[in-house]
UniProtKB/TrEMBL annotation:
GO terms for molecular function: ABC-type transporter activity. InterPro entries: ABC2_TM, Nod_factor_ABC_transporter. Keywords: Membrane, Transmembrane, Transmembrane helix. This is Transporter. It is a multi-pass membrane protein. GO terms for cellular component: membrane. The chain crosses the membrane at residues 52-73, 79-103, 124-153, 159-182, 189-209, 242-267.
Length: 273
């Protein structure tokens, strides 16, 4: 016969029955940097598979625009504007247009619900996707800039500034694209807004500012990519004004911070609906 008291057996049974009522502690929320890295790698792998044909389209489009403008623009500051604007247009096509479509589709298909269930900070989702799409534009932007320099006889000496222009312009445009996609009530409207944003980058970024009407020049100052275009265009001169280049890059960085903050707020807003 067992020597265990009956009261102990009853108490153990009661604890076993009551155990399921105790909620298990939730897992800790993922830290920002590891979550951002994971989202970036996942989005970059996805973009490599699905977006390579579109990157070729963006590059060929920009090169084609420069070829057409070669018959109109001979050289000087106008050639600088055409090459710089066409190069940044590749970033606008991918980071603004395609990212707006991606987040619009993600919201329309309920994909945001999947991200909302993961212990990932909202900023990591937005920043990871934006960084992946922006970095995906690097080959096309470099090819466009090199071809443009060859077409217009511009020096290749300072093309290293693309190492700053691409991420800063990409951050500003990707934040804008993500915000448009997340705030649009329907995926079709997100696609339309992304196309309109890319068209604005084409019209206001590639065409020389001196040939624009006054009101378009003011509109050009409101476009995030303008400052990346200006920074790159200034480096094609024989004696670049590096102070002005740094100022343009600083404005581009500030706009990028604001646009990514707005995109993060839009993600939180869309995820809880």
């Amino acid at each position: 016969m067992s020597a265990v008291p009956l009261e102990a057996v009853v108490r153990a049974e009661d604890e076993r029955v009551a155990a399921p009522d105790v909620a298990a502690p939730l897992g800790a929320r993922a830290r920002m940097v590891p979550a951002l890295t994971a989202v970036y790698r996942a989005q970059l792998s996805r973009a490599r598979v699905a977006r390579i044909p579109l990157l070729f389209v963006a590059t060929f489009q920009s090169v084609g625009i420069m070829i057409l403008m070669r018959g109109v623009v001979d050289g000087g500051s106008e050639a600088h504007a055409v090459v710089a604007g066409s190069s940044v247009l590749v970033v606008a096509f991918v980071a603004l247009n395609l990212l707006a479509q991606y987040f619009g589709q993600l919201r329309g298909d309920g994909g945001l619900d999947h991200y909302a269930t993961l212990p990932v900070p909202p900023a990591a989702v937005v920043l990871g996707a934006a960084a992946a799409y922006a970095s995906f534009t690097v080959p096309g932007t470099i090819v466009t800039a090199v071809v443009g320099c060859g077409l217009f006889g511009l020096p290749l000496t300072h093309l290293w500034v693309l190492a700053a222009v691409i991420p800063l312009s990409g951050a500003a445009l990707a934040g804008l694209g993500a915000a448009l996609g997340l705030l649009a009530p329907r995926p079709e409207l997100a696609t339309l807004l992304g196309q309109m944003g890319m068209s604005a980058a084409l019209l206001l970024g590639v065409l020389p500012a001196e040939r624009m009407p006054g009101f378009l020049q003011y509109a050009r100052d409101l476009l995030p990519s303008t400052y990346g275009v200006e920074a790159l265009a200034r480096t094609f001169g024989s004696d670049p004004d590096w102070g002005a280049v740094l100022l343009d890059l600083g404005v581009c960085a500030a706009v990028g911070v604001v646009s990514l903050a707005v995109a993060t707020w839009a993600y939180r807003r869309a995820a809880v609906r």
